[in-house]
Amino acid sequence: MSTLIQMSESNSLFIPSLDVKDSLGDNVLMLETTFTDMMSSLNNPNNFNTKKRQHATQPIVVSQLKIVPYVGVKTILFKGVIKGSTGKTYDTHILFKRVNFVDDAEDVDDIDNDVVEFVAADGETYHIERINLAKHDVSVSCNCLDFKWTFAKHNSKTKDLYGRAPAPYKPKTDRPSRNFNDKPAMCKHLIKTIGALVDADMAKE
Length: 205
Fold this sequence. Notes:
Blueprint: E1 3-6, H1 18-24, H2 35-43, E2 61-70, E3 75-83, E4 89-96, H3 108-111, E5 115-119, E6 125-129, E7 131-132, E8 138-142, H4 145-157, H5 188-199, E9 203-204
Parallel strand pairs: 1-5, 7-9
Antiparallel strand pairs: 2-3, 3-4, 4-8, 5-6
């Protein structure tokens, strides 16, 4: 049995963008970080001395979520708009790799209950095997300052950053980095976006 998910329409082109190619890199098999890996890193007190991000998602909402599939390279991009408690919005990008697209809709019911049907940003209907957050590699980005200064540089080193790496940061004080073990992870806006995917049955933990 499949799940139908209607997402917002957009003018996104149904071709891999430069950002998608940058995120994939030259060898997709080299990418091994999952959402579960990032959350484990975030929850490890040896890496981060606060769990404020994980517990600060309730006041924020996902006001928009668009799906852009790239069937040829077996990836799917989720573009979220997250509204904070102050009314300010943030843009999130989550690119899952090695996604299994189901070509023949007539075969969906013959596979299992782990197939999701959705309408993408191009207005077309697609079927995929539900994203497993512990198995599917992921690249992420958010335009909030926490992601920019705490995670972006480190995510880029491990090819877990969606888009181009930020310019090198030159500290103005001797205060240690909040990401003192250089671990790839994510901000509360990305955590909230992933939660929306789980709630919509697009992904499973």
